[in-house]
Amino acid sequence: MRRIYEDHAYGQGPVTECYWDTTVQRPERGAAIEGEVGAEVAILGAGYTGLSAALHLARDHGANVAVVEANGIGWGASGRNGGFATIGGTKASEATLLARYGAAAMAEWRGVQKDCPDLVAEILARYGIDADTHSHEGETCVAHRAGAFDQLREEAEAIRQNYGVEVELMGPSDLPRLGMNGPQFFGAMRMKLGFALNPLKYVLGLAAAAKAEGARVYENSPVERITREDGAYLLHTVRGVLRAKKLIVATNGYSSEDVPDWMAGRYLPAQSAIIVTREMREEEIAAQGWTTHGMAYDTRNLLHYFRLMPNRRMLFGVRGGTSATPASQEAMRARARADFEAMFPAWRHVETPHYWSGFVCLTRGLTPYIGPIGDWDNAWAGFAWHGNGVALGTWSGRQLARLAVGEGGVPALMARKPGRFPLGTWRRALLVGAYAWYGYVDRPDPLRPGEI
Ligand SMILES: Cc1cc2nc3c(=O)[nH]c(=O)nc-3n(C[C@H](O)[C@H](O)[C@H](O)COP(=O)(O)OP(=O)(O)OC[C@H]3O[C@@H](n4cnc5c(N)ncnc54)[C@H](O)[C@@H]3O)c2cc1C
Questions:
Q1: How far is the CA of 252 from the centre of ligand 1 (A)?
Q2: Right CATH for 7-138+193-441 from 3.50.50.60, 3.90.76.10, 3.40.1350.10, 1.10.4030.10
C-alpha cells in the first residue's frame, strides 16, 4: 500500500489516548482472511461507509457480503471522530456549487443531507444501539467575530427555506443567558438538524448489526493489491485472497495510491484532532458559562468543533497540520490546547488527558463521490465526506449497496468523477498554502481601543 503521509499516521500512535476507548471495550478482533474465500460483494474498509453498505446489502438484498479491514472494526475515522451526526459533506461554497451543478441538483443534495442523520437515528433505534446520543435540538454555529454574525444573519433565512428547518439566531448579548459564554463568541445560529453520538459505540453497533444480518467481517487483513480474473475481483492479503464478483471500496482518508490504482491522486487526507477534558464540576462549568450540551462549531474556515458531553467532559476539535510525525502531532496537541484556553479561559486549569487525531478526506472539487471505479465493471467507490462522514458515510454506504444491486442512482453533486490533485504523492503540500490563507482570513477582529 502506497500512502501519502508518514507511517506514524497509519499506526496506533495517533489514537493511544483516544477518549472513546475508555467508554466501551472493543470486542476481540475477528478472523483474518486465510487461504481463498469467496463472496458476491467484497467491501474494502470497515468504517461507517463499508459497514452500512454491508448491512444494507445483506439485509435488503440478501447478498453474500464480506468486509475486509486492515486493522479492526472502526479503526479509521469512524471510531475516532467528534460524533456530530449532522448535515454537510462538501467544502466548496454554496455559490460555487450552485454555479457548478444548478438549482435542481442543489435541492436534491439538501434532501440527501437531511436524510443522512435520520438514517443514523433509524439504525440506532432498529438495532438497539446505545450510542449516548444528545443535542437533539440540533447544531449551533458560533460567530468567531462580529462580521461573521452579520453573515450568519444573512444565511439564516436561506437555510430555513432551503432545508425547511427551524433556525434560531442568537445575538451576542443573548449568548451568556443561553449557556454559550466565551470571549470569542459574537452571536450564533442554531439549526434543528442532526444530533451528537459516541462514534465508537455507533460503529461497533453498526458492525454487530451487519453481522446479525449475515455479513462477514474479516479483520487484521490489509489488502495489498486488487487484481481481476475471469470477471472476478481478487483482494490479496498476506495470508489469503478474497474473490468476489463485485467490489466496493470504502477507505476514505485511509485510502492508498494503489489499492486500487484508480484512487491515486483522487483523494486528499487532511488531519483533524480532538482533546477531551476530565469530568468537570458544576461550579467549573458555571464559571465559564458554557453550560449547553448542544453541539457547536465556529465560523472559521479552519473550524473548531466542540460539545459539552452529558458526563460533563468537554470535547474540542481542531483541523489542520500537514505532517503526521510524532513531533507534529505534539505540536497539534499544543495548538488545540492553546485554542481551547483562548476560547474557554475559565477552563485553563482543566486538564485534557485525551488527545488523538485522524484523517478526513477531500477531493479536488471539494465534493463527495459515489460511483464507478474507472472503467471497471461492478466496482464502486465512496469517499470524501469532507469531515462529515458520520451521517453521510452511513447514507452513502446504503447508496453503494443499492448501486451494487443495480438499483438507485447517485445525486448529481456526488456523481462527478474526482479529478487528480496536482503534485502526486506530494499533494498534501497543497494544504500548507491553504492553511496559511485560512489562518489569515480567519483572524479575529482587531481589538478596539481600551480592550486588552
Ligand atoms: C478527529 C476526527 C473528527 C471527526 N469528526 C467528525 C464529526 O464530528 N462528524 C462527522 O460527520 N464526521 C467527522 N469526522 C469524519 C468522519 O469520521 C469520517 O468521514 C468517517 O468516519 C469516514 O468513514 P469511512 O467508513 O468512509 O472511512 P473510515 O472510517 O476512515 O474507514 C476506512 C477504513 O478502511 C480501512 N482500509 C484502508 N485501506 C485498506 C486496505 N488496503 N485494506 C483493508 N482495509 C483498509 C482502514 O483501516 C479504515 O478502517 C471526523 C474525523 C476525524 C479524524
A1: 6
A2: 3.50.50.60
